[in-house]
Amino acid sequence: EPRVFSGIQPTGIPHLGNYLGALQSWVHLQERYHTVLYSIVDLHSITVPQDPGTLRQSVLDMAACLLACGISPAQSCIFQQSQVAEHAELAWILSCLTSMPRLRHLPQWKVKSQRQNNEGSVGLFTYPVLQAADILLYRATHVPVGDDQVQHLELTQDTARLFNRLYGDFFPIPKAIMGTSKKIRSLRDPSSKMSKSDPHKLATVRLTDSPEEIVMKFRKAVTDFTSEVTYDPEGRPGVSNLVAIHSAVTGLSAEEIVGRSRGMETAQYKLAVAEAVIQKLRPIREEMHRLQKDRGYLQGVLRQGAQRAKEMAAPVYDSVCRLVGFR
Ligand code: ATP
Ligand code: MG
């Protein structure tokens, strides 16, 4: 029986990259699959320092955001990772199957430990192992992820294969499902991806940004010295990122976008992209503001989600314990 699992960190309001790379496909998948789990992965979020009050609020904001994007608690199990203790328990077992060199070259570790003067925590280093546990704990078969998570998912696949070889065929090997767009890049630095935890305020367009903020961020987006719209991600990453965003929010191909923008100066084009983004995000933003006022409802959704997730996780973890020799 196919099962879908994915997660998002409560590290702030999601941005366009999260939406186009992941959340949008999450909505479609709940129509196509019977069992779908979406986790607000708070255990992952503390791999970098978090303020407790902010974290508590971010979990509720994320729940509101998932619902506002169209994820339905009737079709999907929406839950907070830390409420299902088996995630951390399985992660321990899997960490004993994973070698240090296997983790050292993964992109997340490099980027986020650099932000902390190369003094990242042990948790940040082993984060992909917890991610493997998240997926395998539900014996998930399909994992919708953005471009930036492909290498992490490969680790999950390797870990599942190794476990199966050592202890008997137990975990399905999960497949990646990619979002509608490739990696969306930072508006300030097209060499890095758009990230919730990017300290630069103008780098990300959040799903709750006002039209004025969106215009301002696109106006200040870093491009290059050629004032012409072309799509060349290698040579012109800044402008090409704008085209990629424009293409993803309108459904037109990059070629069509470039064709229609012939003769436009970059400054003018930025406003056209901003306008398309504003249209796309308007309903999400409005619904999000409505839901944020109803904390009781959000807490109820998370409580029920955690209960269902726990019911699925417990028997899998119990089998793992038997296979490993704990029972
Ligand atoms: P953080 O900076 O806290 O890691 P993030 O923006 O990277 O936040 P995550 O919660 O780590 O977001 O990831 C949630 C989902 O969004 C994942 O499936 C990830 O692949 C996807 N995603 C994140 N950033 C991008 C991006 N720039 N483009 C496309 N998909 C993305
Ligand atoms: Mg991330």
UniProtKB/TrEMBL annotation:
It comes from the Eukaryota. The keyword rRNA-binding does not apply. GO terms for molecular function: ATP binding; tryptophan-tRNA ligase activity. It is found in: Mitochondrion matrix. GO terms for cellular component: mitochondrial matrix; mitochondrion. It holds the Pfam family tRNA-synt_1b. It catalyses: tRNA(Trp) + L-tryptophan + ATP = L-tryptophyl-tRNA(Trp) + AMP + diphosphate + H(+). InterPro entries: aa-tRNA-synth_I_CS, aa-tRNA-synth_Ic, Rossmann-like_a/b/a_fold, Trp-tRNA-ligase, Trp-tRNA-ligase_bac-type, Trp-tRNA_synthetase. The keyword Aminoacyl-tRNA synthetase applies. It is an enzyme of class 6 (ligase). Keywords: Aminoacyl-tRNA synthetase, ATP-binding, Ligase, Nucleotide-binding, Protein biosynthesis. One of its GO terms (biological process) is mitochondrial tryptophanyl-tRNA aminoacylation. Its EC number is 6.1.1.2. Belongs to the class-I aminoacyl-tRNA synthetase family. Catalyzes the attachment of tryptophan to tRNA(Trp) in a two-step reaction: tryptophan is first activated by ATP to form Trp-AMP and then transferred to the acceptor end of tRNA(Trp). This is Tryptophan--tRNA ligase, mitochondrial. The gene is wars2.
